[in-house]
Amino acid sequence: MSDQPAFTLNIDQNKYLPLDGREVHAILTVGSTGGVTTQVVSSEAAEVIIVDTSGSMSGGKIREARQAAATAVRTLRDGVLFAVIAGTEKAGMVYPGGSPRLVKATAATKAEAERAIGRLLAHGGTAIGEWLNLAGHMLAAHPSAIKHALLMTDGQNNESDDVFSSVLAGWSGRFVVDSLGVGDDWVPAELRKVADAMLGTFDFVRNQTDLSEYFRRLTQTSMSKTVAELSLRVWVPQTARLKFVKQVSPTLLDLTGKRADVNPLTGDYPTGSWGAEEREYHVCVEVPPGQIGQEIRAGWVKLVRPDTGDVVASGNVLAQWTDDLAQSTRINGKVAHYTGQAELHELIQDGLSARAVGDVDTATARLARARELAAETGREDTARLLEKVVEVDPATGTARLRRNVDKADEIELDTGSVRTSRLRKEGF
Amino acid sequence: MTGNEKVASCPVCEAPVLAGDIYCEACGHPMGAPTCASCGAGAVDAEGYCERCGLRQPTGRDHAETVLDNGAAAVTDRGLRRSRNEDAMALMASGDTIVAVVCDGVGSSPRADEASAVAVETAATALARGASQQEAFDLAGRAVAKLATSVYDAPACTYVAAVVEPDRITLGWAGDTRAYSLPDGGLLTEDDAIETGEITAWLGADAEGVTLHVRTFTPHAPGLLLVCSDGLWRYLDGYAFPSAGTPLEMAREMLRHALDSGGQDNVTIALIPLGEARE
Ligand SMILES: [Zn+2]
Ligand SMILES: [Zn+2]
């Protein structure tokens, strides 16, 4: 064996369908040993650190932000290309000064960057799209690098929806962005859009004093990536339809709309960069009706490097029709687990948006059901947060929304709902 | 473009391809692959799946027939409900001795089709060169055990072997594959199985303390020895065995009965003439 990072792709499913069965569900578990390849050593890492310095950041927040950005810079591996951006209604270079470009991290450049960060002041507005534009342009100058940006904000984006959306669409899949929301004045929906488009995560930093630790952890994770980019290449039969492709672990991320057609039966779905890690994906294929005993390949999944076309792992999603109910009704534990998690996420999202627009009935129904589901599936933390938003009378079972909900609790519930729990082996 | 280039369409994606093209430019499919049994596309890949409709292609093993010079015959069939045939059979003559071996892949084990194939091949070869039932069984057992990567990944199969000499028949078995005497339909083997039908003996790396049953006897009346898998015998209750025709015709008729009765499992039937019925 060489020191190539080894990828594995395992498929969990119940391939048996009843005679009228049309939907095939499978959970793909993709694992990487993250070993470093000679090829990968030559592929550089590039990191842009974006700090919100708008007016709302004044006081303690800007102090914590300076410290966090400095921590991120210190965490950079020597040799990594980096830059620091200050975000207001415009994007400004903090380090290096002058024209937008990335520089190599050395003891000297990191010390200079820290000094520049120390001079950051809070003033002005918030235009997240502008910040990502500048980061994107700098990163695009290094096509073979593992490209990542770390974004921190505490406020609401002042850009129009159209502008923001078109910036995200333009850069989608071209670098990975992990975002952090600080305080209780930011809008989870905005960072959710960034995470969805840029294949990253977003998280809530409830205590601003924890910001440095978040920055350190995200920078470290980004530094551990060894493979720049991989795609899930999915073939389905001509008569079938690929209903969705979702990342379901460690977080929920719908990839369905990110398809790039390879040929009429095959599409590529970006998965971003990889280190030593394991992720799970849920694929659903709608197949035409079949006959008893017939077996088809309902999906052929390959993990490919889009630059070289190399297939690093592959597997088959199968379907076989049977009139044996014991076979066709057997539920695959992993499929059920992640279907439940996706349902919980949707209930929370629906409930919170209904609540925001004053649709009390819908909000109450969704959030009460979410609370029930969270309790049933052992999501204790989520159930506890839901209890702060909706209360159920134990005697009558009647649910009602609570009046005074802590803003931070609501944000935590909102952001946390994309995180999924892993299925323990015993769960089967 | 020259005038004599004919335009055809790709069997996978239906994009136009020129007569001399080796690959479809739209989907990369190589031209001239085997034809799919279901949709007819010339697009069956090396793994046996159609690249257009996905169907796993039937293999030669889905239905096979063997006939010996003396009329002994065997058929094996996938049945109607399984995606592949995990039964395997061997029927061969060595001088005036006929050897028949039938194995049935254990459905809950991985690659059960490989287990039964290697077991019949190993045992039949050994029996045909004069090895004892026990020897042949041990060799087959070792060959099946070798397929396993661990006891959790152990291909397995049941086993029945018949050695038919002019004045003597020996049977060796483990599991629930069976032998009957015809025309009376008398059962000659006893299943290794508990009441619920689960088998208690098989060949495989995860088999523990399995002993071969051996039975030797002299045929006293002309007739046939039937060796079969449970894909047939589960439908024998109240069944009147065919009484006319060649062994091959009779075996085909029994197969038709199994399929008409539901064909739940793979079906394997071997019929060997006994006594005066031997030519
Ligand atoms: Zn084509
Ligand atoms: Zn086909």
Features:
heterodimer, A: 428 residues, alpha+beta, Immunoglobulin-like, Four Helix Bundle (Hemerythrin (Met), subunit A), 3 domains, six-stranded mixed beta sheet, 20 strands, B: 279 residues, Phosphatase 2c, domain 1, 2 domains, six-stranded antiparallel beta sheet, elongated, binds zinc ion, CLCR (chain A), VWF_A (chain A)
What topology emerges from the helices and strands here?
The complex is a heterodimer of chains A (428) and B (279).
Chain A: E1 7-12, E2 16-17, E3 23-32, H1 38-42, E4 45-52, H2 60-75, E5 81-87, E6 91-95, E7 103-104, H3 107-118, H4 128-140, E8 146-153, H5 161-171, E9 176-182, H6 188-197, E10 202-205, H7 211-223, E11 231-235, E12 241-249, E13 253-254, E14 260-263, E15 266-270, E16 277-286, E17 295-304, E18 311-321, H8 325-328, H9 333-356, H10 360-376, H11 380-389, E19 390-392, E20 399-401, H12 407-416
Parallel strand pairs in A: 2-18, 4-5, 4-8, 8-9, 9-10
Antiparallel strand pairs in A: 1-3, 3-16, 5-6, 5-7, 11-15, 11-17, 12-13, 12-16, 14-15, 17-18, 19-20
Helix pairs in contact in A: 2-3, 2-7, 4-5, 9-10, 10-11, 11-12
Chain B: E1 7-9, E2 16-18, E3 63-67, E4 73-77, E5 87-94, E6 97-105, H1 112-128, H2 133-145, E7 156-165, E8 168-174, E9 178-182, E10 186-187, E11 203-204, E12 213-217, E13 223-228, H3 230-233, H4 247-260, E14 267-274
Antiparallel strand pairs in B: 1-2, 3-4, 4-14, 5-6, 6-7, 7-8, 7-11, 8-12, 9-10, 9-13, 13-14
Helix pairs in contact in B: 1-2
One zinc ion binds next to loops of chain B.
Pfam family, one (chain B): PP2C_2
Protein name (chain B): Serine/threonine protein phosphatase PrpC
Domain PPM-type phosphatase (chain B): 71-274
